[in-house]
Amino acid sequence: MFFCGAAWRIKTKEKKVFLTFDDGPVPEVTPCVINLLKQYNAVATFFCVGDNVRKYPVVFRLIRESGMKVGNHTFSHCKAWSKTKAEYLNDVKKCSNYAESNCFRPPHGQMYPWWIRSLKKSFGRIVMWDILSLDYDPMLTPDEVVENVTANLRKGSIIVFHDSLKAWDRLKVALPRVLEHLKNEGYTTEIIE
Ligand SMILES: [Zn+2]
């Protein structure tokens, strides 16, 4: 899976990485993630599901007020491969009404390369990733989630976590360890512009 016109890693010579959290905001997880990030002076981009923003506007506001960035992750977390282009663009637009952003990430990484131009024109940057933490996978231990990130870390890496209930059991243990590792290795974090 590789699309031209989408960002898989940010080109940089500096030791910085881009943390991203998908599928929130949810009250049980997102505020805890923000607290952990703050403890390490880290920042992240939150690719929000519009329907969650609708349900939890206070949690959404917390993301913005904490100096984090918001991205568009569709309204209903829909899969590109089960929608027409018009339906899909509508769902992305509906998310924009709740979470305005210049960055978009397609749920499940599903995308038709020939939709990219329309998406970019209306919704800005398409942000993919080079590191999947797999924090949502119940077969993995938190240690394995940490390893997925630290073993593949490079300058400019875009790392995917999930501020979702499904991932939280692993994320709450793995995230502080990853943040500790970044600090020890001299990496800083940035939001995706
Ligand atoms: Zn997602």
**Ligands, ions, cofactors:** zinc ion
The number of distinct β-strands equals: 8
Number of helices: 7
Beta-strand percentage? Answer: 15-25%
- Percent of residues in helices: 25-40%
Low-confidence regions: none
List the helices and strands and how they pair.
Blueprint: E1 16-22, H1 30-39, E2 44-48, H2 50-55, H3 57-65, E3 69-72, H4 85-98, E4 103-104, H5 116-123, E5 125-126, E6 131-132, H6 142-150, E7 158-162, H7 165-184, E8 188-189
Helix pairs in contact: 1-7, 4-5, 6-7
Bound molecules: zinc ion.
Zinc ion (ZN) binds next to loops.
Question: Explain this structure to me?
Answer:
With 193 residues, the protein is of the alpha/beta class. It has a single domain (16-189), classed as Glycoside hydrolase/deacetylase (TIM Barrel, Alpha-Beta Barrel), CATH 3.20.20. It is built from 7 helices and 8 strands; from the N terminus they run βαβααβαβαββαβαβ. The strands form 2 sheets. Strands 1, 2, 3, 6, 7 and 8 form a 6-stranded parallel sheet that branches. α1 (30-39) packs parallel to α7, α4 packs parallel to α5 (116-123) and α6 crosses α7. The longest helix has 20 residues, at 165-184. 40% of the residues are buried. It binds zinc ion (ZN). Zinc ion (ZN) binds next to loops.
What structural keywords apply?
binds zinc ion; six-stranded parallel β-sheet; TIM Barrel; 193 residues; 7 helices; two-stranded parallel ribbon; globular; alpha/beta
